[in-house]
Amino acid sequence: MTTPPQGNPFAQGQNPYAQGQPPQGQAPYPQQPGQPGFPQGGAPYAPVPPQQPSRKLSFKTIKNIVIGVVVVTAVVGGYIASRDDANTAAVGDCMHRGSTSDTNPDLEVVDCSSSEAQYEVMAKIEGTYLTQLSASNKCEAEAKGFQYTYTQSGDGSEFLLCLKDKK
Q1: Which region, left, alpha or beta, applies to residue 20 given φ > 0 means left and ψ of -120 to 50 means alpha?
Q2: What is the pTM of this model?
Q3: Rg of the chain in Å (alpha carbons)
Q4: Which of the residues in the chain have pLDDT under 70?
Q5: What is the rounded distance in angstroms from the CA atom of residue 77 to the CA atom of residue 100?
């Protein structure tokens, strides 16, 4: 086994700078703060604070915002559209028929002074009426002189409207 020469700085296990001596012909390396031989005062100026990372909206965040806006718009639109449906009618209100269909006349509450007012609500009776005869009998008992019946079931509200022509 051979040993490397003593002057070889690349030889394993040997550190030519162990005594703090630079190689011959070279200047010493500057020492870092906190090391022996460096003044403890630090630099004559304050360190620059790190730059704050810019906040960018991710695709997921933008998507969630758009979905939220769409849902809120749909809920508000549905509420506004349903405010004048037949289920909001009360005795004395006037109604307009929005459809010519007898099975779904699309009754809407309108102002009684409006030219669209076709019917006047004489009675509103809660409950389910499956046949025209039972609805007519109930209206006859509650509102004398009625001309038309309108029943609604489903959607959580089941009722009968007794109507007459608006004069």
Answers
A1: left
A2: 0.47
A3: 45
A4: 1-44, 81-84, 155-156
A5: 25
Supply 3's token pair: 């040993």
Q: Are 94 and 109 in contact (CB under 8 A)?
A: yes
Distance CA 75, CA 41 (A): 65
The string of pLDDT tens digits covering residues 63-93 is 999 999 999 999 888 777 666 577 778 888 8
* Two tokens, residue 123: 């009675």
Determine the 3-state secondary structure of 87 from DSSP. Answer: helix
Residue environment code for 44-81, b if the CB has 16+ CB neighbours within 10 A, otherwise e: eeeeeeeeeeeeeeeeeeeeeeeeeeeeeeeeeeeeee
d(CA 120, CA 108) in angstroms, rounded, equals: 11
Structure tokens at 160: 């009968």
| Separation CA 60–CA 58 (nearest Å) | 5
**What pLDDT score does 69 carry?**
95
